[in-house]
Amino acid sequence: MKHSGASTAQEVPLPVAETTTGPTTKFAAVPAYFRDVKFDPVPYWQKIGRWKDITEKQFLSYRWGTANDIQGKMKLHDFLKETLPEKLPQSDEYENIRTRDDFIKDVMDGIDRAPMSIRISPHIISSIDWANPLEDPLRRQFIPMMSTFQKDHPVLTLDPQHETEDSPVQGLVHRYNDKCLFLAASHCPLYCRFCTRSYAVGANTSTVTKSSLKPQLPRWEAMLQYIASNPVINDVVISGGDSYSLMPHHLRLLGDRLLAIPHIRRFRIATKGLCVSPSRTLDPEDDWTDELIALVKRGRECGKHIALHTHFNHPSEFSWVSREAAQKLFANGVIVRNQSVLLKGVNDSVETMGALIRELADNNIQPYYVYAGDLVRGVEDLRTPLSTILTLEEQLRGTIAGFMTPQFVVDLPGGGGKRLAASYKTYDRKTGKSTFVAPAIKGGETVYEYWDPLASLPAQ
Ligand SMILES: *Cc1c(COP(=O)(O)O)cnc(C)c1O
Ligand code: SF4
Questions:
Q1: What is the C-alpha separation between 200 and 216, in angstroms, rounded?
Q2: Among 365, 354, 260, which residue's Cα sits nearest to residue 310?
Q3: Percent of the chain whose predicted confidence (pLDDT) is above 70
Q4: Nearest Cα residue to atom 15 of ligand 1
Q5: Do 372 and 342 meet the contact criterion of CB atoms below 8 Å apart?
Q6: Is 309 in the pocket of ligand 1 (CB under 6 A)?
Q7: Closest C-alpha residue for ligand 2 atom 8
Q8: Before 414, cis peptide (omega within 30)?
Q9: Distance 132 CA to ligand 2 centre (A)
Q10: Which InterPro entries does the UniProt entry name for this protein (predicted)?
């Protein structure tokens, strides 16, 4: 007896697996990329006037990248002057800004009020649409503007997670029982306006003098001693600042010291580097990624889990360089996860957040967390109400594999740790106040509050 389904199946020949004989496959040191197919290597930096003659080899060099990043107000001023068109497209949100000079003045005034200093990498500079900088989601993250400044929420502080209170040793935050945060560096390859650690990260600005977290081996020694003498700690997050600013041999030293502590079972290395300076991963003259891959392999050999945690917020932060870099890490067995911050006008729509999650997943970067914006000074214009993160979670769950679906969380102000946004105990949409509990951190009694930005509340 035949039915049509079976007969069709017989007519379509199935691909036959070739029998492999001979020696075991050796893995190439340089992975085979899908060049010219998925990763069309367009020289996207050449649309920036000053980089029109920069070759791929130069752009991929980390040394070239750090020498050509835009650091400080005056360098940004000069860059904008030479790059922007004289007239800008109209924007309802910025109705008073029509020309290049209006834009530059607004940015310069914005920088004077901002808690973070300016540093932008060539990859990010090349990924911004300079024909329409007002609406650009990357411009919003890294370049402040005076005209969108909103008054801070009355409950807001510079160290919203009270990290300085949970620090038994300077530079180490021990809040959760079994894990701690190791603040190894105080610099980043670029500075985000919304940084939750604006109390310590980056150069001093006209409004904030930073407490020092400079990479210092003697300071690390005290932190490592604390970890070694506290067997409850199994898990360490190396952060800062950004682990990209560690010298490659310091990364190795720190990693090996942690691997040698018997009760440390896992650690993560946090860096925004893969997002903002992906070329470094491909630069044959730079050792950071090689040290990372070697460290991960040493960790595997002794049964310990090491992962890279990175920070993409928008799909336009990906270029072919980012995709090749992610593939190099994947092919070499490095687990990469991503933590995004939900930002108004950047990634707060279902469409954009959905596209970001898919881009991450396709690059084998696990979308781990999406955070509601922290209550940080000077960036109220970038925060969204709790209702936004609830909607994103509701709409996006089920659109992709569950293991590629991020947890949508609030990092509770006051040191309650991360909680699912949807686990709120109360949420008053009129006052914007939501409450949470965190039994594993401080027992079940302490109630933590999160507040929607004032501008998102109904008029009364
Ligand atoms: C986020 C964080 C961690 C790590 O938490 P996970 O939920 O495991 O990612 C550890 N310590 C502190 C202080 C943190 O803020
Ligand atoms: S990369 Fe991270 S630590 Fe550095 S400025 Fe941005 S948010 Fe802050």
A1: 15
A2: 365
A3: 87
A4: 417
A5: yes
A6: no
A7: 195
A8: no
A9: 25
A10: Aldolase_TIM, Lys_aminomutase/Glu_NH3_mut, rSAM, rSAM_sf
Q: What is the 3-state secondary structure (H, E, C) of 277-317?
A: CCHHHHCCCCCHHHHHHHHHHHHHHCCCEEEEEECCCCHHH
Pocket test for ligand 1, best of 175, 179, 269 (most atoms within 8 A of CB): 179
Ligand 1 atom index nearest CA of 173: 13
CA atoms within 13 A on the CB side of 68: 19
Q: Distance between CA atoms of 82 and 77, rounded to whole angstroms?
A: 9
CA of 192 to the centre of ligand 2 (A): 5
Residue nearest ligand 2's atom 3 by CA: 241
For atom 7 of ligand 2, the residue with the nearest CA is 195
Residue 27 confidence (pLDDT): 44
Q: What integer is the mean pLDDT of 219-242? A: 94
Confidence of residue 21 (pLDDT cuts 50, 70, 90): low
Residues 52-81 have pLDDT tens digits of 999 999 999 999 999 999 999 999 999 999
What phi, psi does 395 have (nearest 5°)? -80, -35
CATH 3.20.20.70 domain extents, the chain: 164-409
Under 8 Å between Cβ of 420 and 408: yes
Express as a percent the part of the chain with pLDDT over 90. Answer: 68
Q: Look over the chain and give the mean of its residue pLDDT values, rounded to a whole number.
A: 88
Q: What is the pLDDT of residue 214?
A: 53
* Residues 243-277 pLDDT 10s: 998 999 999 999 999 999 999 999 999 999 999 99
Q: Which fold has domain 164-409?
A: TIM Barrel (3.20.20)
Ligand 2 atom 6 nearest Cα: 192
Asked whether 252 lines ligand 1 (CB < 6 A), one says: no
CA 338 to ligand 1 center in whole angstroms: 13
Collapsing DSSP states into helix, strand and coil, what is residue 39? strand
C-alpha 132 to ligand 1 mean position (Å): 37
